[in-house]
Structure formats: C-alpha cells, structure tokens
Hints:
Elements: E1 21-22, E2 33-35, E3 37-40, E4 53-55, E5 58-60, E6 73-75, E7 78-80, E8 83-88, E9 93-100, E10 103-108, E11 113-120, E12 123-128, E13 133-140, E14 143-148, E15 153-160, E16 163-168, E17 173-178, E18 183-188, E19 196-197, H1 200-214
Parallel strand pairs: 1-3, 2-4, 3-5, 4-6, 5-7, 6-9, 7-9, 8-10, 9-11, 10-12, 11-13, 12-14, 13-15, 14-16, 15-17, 16-18, 17-19
Amino acid sequence: MASKNEPRAPRLSPLELHDLVVNDDAFFGPGETYDGQRFEQTSFDEADLSSTDFLDCELNRPTLNNTELRGVRFRGTVVNDSFAPIMKGARTSWRDTEITAPRWGSAELYDSSWQSVRIDGGKIDFLNLRTAKITDLQISDAIIGELDLGGATVTRMSLKNCRIGTLDLQQAKLKDLDLRSTDFRILNGIGSMSGVVIDDYQLSLLAPFMAAHLGVTIA
C-alpha cells in the first residue's frame, strides 16, 4: 500500500498510432490540420504554423528553428528527435503526446497547456513554462539548463532522473510536483514550494535556502 505522503503520479494515456500516411508537402502554412500523418526529417524552419493542428501524427527528426508555433495544438502525437535552437511556442497545447530526445535551445512555451504528456531524454537549454497550465506531465532522463515554472498551475508533474541547473517556482501553484531523483543547483521561489515532494537528500541541500527565506541564522 502506498504511503499517504506518496505524491499522485501523472496519469498518462497509452499512445498507439496506426496506418499513418507519409506527408511530403513542401509548403506549410498557418491554420492547417494534419490528421494521421507521418513527417520524416521535415524542416519547418522559419515556417508560420500558428494555430495548426497535429492530430494522431508522428514527427520524426523535425527541425523547428524560428518556426512560429503560437497556438499550435498537438493531440495524440509523437515528436521524436526534434531540433530547435529557438522554439517559438507560446500558447501551444499538448495533449496525449510523447516527446523523445528533444534538442531545444530557448524553448519559449509560456502560457501553454499540457495534459497527459511524456518528455523522455534530450537536452533543453531553457524551458520556459511560465504561467503554463500543466496536468499530468512526466519529464525523465533530461538535461535542462533552466526550467521556469513561474506562475504556472501544476497538477501531477514528475521529474525523474533529470539534471536541472536552475528551477524557478516563483508564484507557481503546485499539487504533486515530484522532484525526487532529480538534481538541481539553484532553486528560485522557495516560498512557493507547497505541493512539492522532495527526498531527504534534497531537503539537506535546500536547508540553507529555507533558513534564509525564514530569516533563520545558522551559527
């Protein structure tokens, strides 16, 4: 039986894709809908995909540098080995989606929505999820230079075996944010940690920051 203090894990739906059609289109414009399609090594660089829908699709090794992704909706979609030095994805929506081995530089995903999503592996320099709405998100085995959850609303999010340089939780609303097994060097927003689950080792590392926040002097 699980401990009453055990956090609720993200609820992740299994994803199965069948009978996908390969998309060879060389032009991509805003507001399109792609349903049941596979994209192989597609360059979306500099394209305007704003308000586009990807439904039950598979994107293998896409490049998304400076692609306008504002308002894009991903549903039941797999994104493998994506590359984006600059990712412009404000107000994107991700649902029942799997992202594997992303290589993102500055990922501007603020005001975005996440529901039942896995991010597995990869390296992200700056993951900006400020003011995002997150329900059931699992990030595992990833290296993240800075993860900004400032002002975000988070329910059931797990970071497994990740390495994070700076974690920003300022003014976030958190329920069942599981940080156990993840290393981070700097944490901003110590006063917004209600709803976070950490292990004993992490508690020892955070003790000086907690003391400073409370005005406690350790002599």
